[in-house]
Design a protein that fits this description.
Helix content: over 70%
Largest sheet: none
Number of domains: 1
Number of helices: 4
Distance between the termini: 41 Å
Low-confidence stretches: none
Shape: flat
Structural class: mainly alpha
Length: 76
């Protein structure tokens, strides 16, 4: 199996592991800016945004994207 196939299988596996009451990657990205603002400001994450944290616990790809966003926010 090639490295690309392994990554594709990992993405498919993560997408399939999303529970019905959870948000998916696309929806998670929509809330990244607000979620990241709370993390960088040290303010509590409000209830509606906690679904982002739940998704991030299950999705390494979204977590990596959030980490990149946080780094970019710190650099400005």
């Amino acid at each position: 199996m090639s490295e690309t196939d392994a990554k594709l299988n990992a993405v498919i596996g993560m997408a399939m592991s999303v529970l019905p009451e959870e948000i998916g990657c696309d929806d998670c990205f929509d809330y990244f800016a607000a979620y990241a603002d709370h993390l960088t400001n040290g303010t509590p994450v409000p209830e509606p945004l906690r679904m982002v944290g739940s998704h991030l616990e299950r999705c390494a790809f979204c977590m990596e994207e959030l980490e990149l966003l946080l780094e970019a926010m710190k650099a400005r």
